[in-house]
Write a structure and sequence with these properties.
Number of strands: 7
Distance between the termini: 22 Å
Strand order of the largest sheet: 1-2-3-4
Length: 79
């Protein structure tokens, strides 16, 4: 696990992690996790297997994510 970040309002959180050389961002509902549901609401895989996601952050009103890659790219991902 590389990073965990709570969304505005603390109802959701994201987890950034790598499996082998592929990066994933998983988004969870906080209340569901407390109730025992460990399945993410959404999972985003790095679109390019040669690039790893290095950092991710929520966008305005939790409607998007911004992430950077190890090749220097900044990406806006609309949810």
């Amino acid at each position: 696990m590389k990073q965990v970040e709570f969304a505005l309002g603390d109802k959701k959180f994201l987890v950034l992690y790598d499996v082998k050389k592929t990066s994933f961002i998983s988004i969870y509902d906080f209340k569901s996790v407390l109730d025992g549901n460990t399945e993410p609401e959404m999972q985003i895989e790095s679109p390019n297997p040669d690039e790893q996601i290095t950092k991710v952050s929520w966008g305005p009103l939790n409607k998007s994510l911004y992430y950077s890659t190890d090749s220097g790219k900044m990406v806006l991902f609309n949810l």
